[in-house]
Amino acid sequence: ATHWRAVGPNVWGTRRLFAGDETNLPAARNMVRNTMARQAMQGKLWVNDPDCLILREEAPIHEARAFASVVALSGGSLVLSDDVDHLPWERLDIFKRLVPPLPASTHSTNLLVEGLPDIAVVTLPPSACGQISYLIGVFNWTDGDDSRLVHFDFADLSQAHAQVAEGSRLWNVFDVWEESASLHEDRWSGSVMPRGCRLLAARRRTREHPQYIGSDIHVSCGLEVCHFSEVKREAQLGGERSLDFAIDAGRSLEAPCVWLHLPGSCSELPPKL
């Protein structure tokens, strides 16, 4: 349902009664609560069914992205109830980025907070990029703007120590919906719109090797990569390094954008395409 609270039948005097339902009746709030509470059951007891995804213009774009993020983080079934022929391109693009569903579901959700959970984390297996990454949903289910703080202490310790040994405690963080990249040390903070979401793809920064940071292709910001290889030339040949990567999105792409971390490049020495 596109409405936040349950509406119930159109009978005078019953709207307030049904609006108090927080579990069963069709409502975006109930979908969020039930889906996030059942994340740990994905792939163990059943395939999560987070309810159909509604992207029509009745819901503000930031709310549609928040609901889509909940569906994506569930790792479960993906069903769109809208007519794709009548969806604006920016809303159809939300759906395209969710396909295919993630191979894992949320493993870390703060279910003990008052109200609806506002942070959910999925650990994504190494793709062709060769590095574990984390997809973090940071939500604000209140009616006012709010700030959020996320500590990157959910990372697998063995992987974390292995990558810190390369000399960096920094994280490359890509905001999926805002399409912006930033650098953080062990935590992220930012504001979140009412009933909105910041969907963050985070991976530890490496000092010596190039990294795939994000894209406007898939919410995972990495699983769409099918080949990622660095080639170093010998010193007598100039010592230059090159990066060769390929993307398989399973669909045609008109003008995809990707964000890369290329050590050694700068404005004075920009990378060559």
Name a few traits of the molecule.
alpha+beta, six-stranded antiparallel sheet, two-stranded antiparallel sheet, 5 helices, globular
The N- to C-terminal Cα distance equals: 46 Å
| Largest sheet entry | 6 strands, antiparallel
Helix fraction bin: 10-25%
Annotation field: number of helices: 5
Order of helices and strands: HHHHEEEEHEEEEEEEE
Global outline: globular
Q: What's the short story on this structure?
A:
With 273 residues, the chain is of the alpha+beta class.
Description:
By secondary structure, this protein is an alpha+beta fold. It has five helices and twelve strands. It has helices spanning 15-19, 28-37, 61-74, 89-98, 157-164; strands at 108-109, 119-124, 133-140, 146-151, 170-175, 180-185, 187-192, 196-204, 211-215, 225-232, 241-247, 258-261. The chain has a six-stranded antiparallel β-sheet with strand order 1-2-3-8-5-6. Strands 4-7 form a two-stranded antiparallel sheet. The protein has a two-stranded antiparallel sheet with strand order 9-12. β10 and β11 (241-247) form a beta hairpin. α2 packs parallel to α3 (61-74) and α3 runs parallel beside α4. It is globular, with a radius of gyration of 20 Å. The termini are far apart. Residues 160-167 have low confidence and may be disordered.
Q: Which helices and strands, and how do they pair?
A:
Blueprint: H1 15-19, H2 28-37, H3 61-74, H4 89-98, E1 108-109, E2 119-124, E3 133-140, E4 146-151, H5 157-164, E5 170-175, E6 180-185, E7 187-192, E8 196-204, E9 211-215, E10 225-232, E11 241-247, E12 258-261
Helix pairs in contact: 2-3, 3-4
